[in-house]
Design the sequence.
């Protein structure tokens, strides 16, 4: 049986410069399989740049980024796109659903893009929507879904290809408190089932609830890492 790497994300001395400004300045970080890591910091601290590096949406000026055993640094764009679709799930603040597709097709499309046959993709999409409590909304278009429902559809889409890593960028930022709490509960449950999670948020309360480790960013650098009391829920 193939042995899976215990380290899902490894950044080694990663620097990202835009002209004279370093968005990331020598960041070294490791995330192990099954961890839930929350990255926090003020606007402009480098959180979003970090997420883009791990997702393969941006490339470092220096250093290396390895995700699920693959060095993303030298990959061509087409290979990076394939890697993202198969191995990384992404949950966004404003959902990023396609308005002209119903919920089921929004989820199934992500599977279709990696070559899953249409019938199998829809079956898997419906299974996930059911697990996330929105199967009854599978034929509804995003415009008529509540914010909480849209985010659950977004999470289903992120999970449909069984990603090694789930990235969440301010996943409750566009939700009211009740729907935000439901999404937090969902992320907690996914992590308890073994899903590795990297979360970017301004909300320390959300981070403390969801994460096993908190990483504080300031001026493109890791200022500190905290694992208590969140290492034991």
Sequence:
């Amino acid at each position: 049986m193939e042995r899976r790497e215990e380290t899902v994300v490894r950044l080694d001395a990663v620097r990202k410069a835009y002209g004279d400004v370093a968005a990331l300045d020598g960041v070294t970080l490791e995330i192990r399989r099954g961890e839930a890591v929350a990255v926090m910091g003020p606007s402009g601290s480098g959180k979003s740049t970090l997420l883009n590096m791990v997702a393969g949406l941006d490339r470092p000026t220096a250093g290396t980024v390895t995700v699920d055993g693959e060095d993303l640094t030298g990959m061509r764009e087409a290979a990076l796109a394939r890697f993202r679709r198969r191995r990384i799930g992404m949950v966004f603040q404003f959902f990023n659903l396609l308005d002209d597709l119903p919920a089921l097709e929004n989820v199934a499309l992500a599977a279709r893009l990696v070559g899953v046959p249409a019938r199998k993709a829809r079956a898997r999409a419906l299974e996930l929507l059911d697990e996330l409590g929105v199967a009854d909304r599978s034929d509804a278009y995003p415009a008529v879904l509540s914010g909480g429902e849209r985010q659950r559809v977004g999470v289903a889409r992120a999970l449909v290809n069984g990603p090694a890593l789930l990235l969440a960028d301010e996943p409750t930022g566009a939700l009211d408190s009740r729907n935000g709490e439901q999404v937090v509960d969902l992320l907690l449950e996914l992590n308890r089932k073994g899903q590795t999670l990297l979360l970017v948020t301004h909300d320390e309360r959300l981070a403390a609830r969801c994460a096993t480790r908190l990483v504080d960013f300031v001026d493109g650098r890791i200022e500190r890492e905290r694992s208590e009391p969140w290492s034991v829920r």
